């Protein structure tokens, strides 16, 4: 009897306990669903291991990755050149305009130039630049505006409580985040599928 207990019941109990722990761990991570976007952003670390991200956010967003060009309403494509400089170009066939837009949290994306392998980033001063390894400068809040254009606001930085947007002016030059407005067409981008 005792031997039977040791060989069967104990392992079964341990096994159950193990499963119980897994379930508990599962419900803890599901609790993330209740976090506000700000809390989520704070916990996001879009490092160079996409697998990890896809996996950890799978249950929330399907680990969504889109390949797009971002066409600004000022008629320029957002470009991340080979040195990581952010500009606009009128050339629709520009390779440096092909971007990977990855959902890293609810409503928050990281945007990487596929050809240059730089992430789009905005620093505290609202300056757009390219970053090789992604940190929170690379997190942007993607919002679909009424006119079907998207806006991309830094998920980390604001200026006097105002959001700072990715924007290209009438000459295709980036605008400092502090000078951008959600309503201005410089901040409006149409994500275009890459054929
Ligand atoms: C983010 O990832 C980097 C590199 O993998 C690591 O050094 C850093 O500690 C991480 N930060 C957080 C907040 O997890
Ligand atoms: C942001 O980038 C600009 C241009 O590179 C630089 O002059 C400025 O000091 C940076 N600001 C911060 C807070 O890093
Ligand atoms: C939009 O931004 C551009 C460039 O900064 C500026 O010249 C223009 O006056 C702004 N338009 C509006 C309606 O704010």
UniProtKB/TrEMBL annotation:
Protein name per the record: Fibroblast growth factor
Superkingdom of this protein's organism: Eukaryota
Organism of derivation: Chiloscyllium punctatum
Matches recorded under PANTHER family: FIBROBLAST GROWTH FACTOR
Taxonomic lineage from the root: Eukaryota, Metazoa, Chordata, Craniata, Vertebrata
Keyword Transit peptide: no
Stored Gene3D superfamilies: 2.80.10.50
Segment forming the signal sequence: 1-19
Any one GO molecular function term: growth factor activity
Similarity annotation: Belongs to the heparin-binding growth factors family.
CDD domains found in the cross-reference section: beta-trefoil_FGF7 (cd23319)
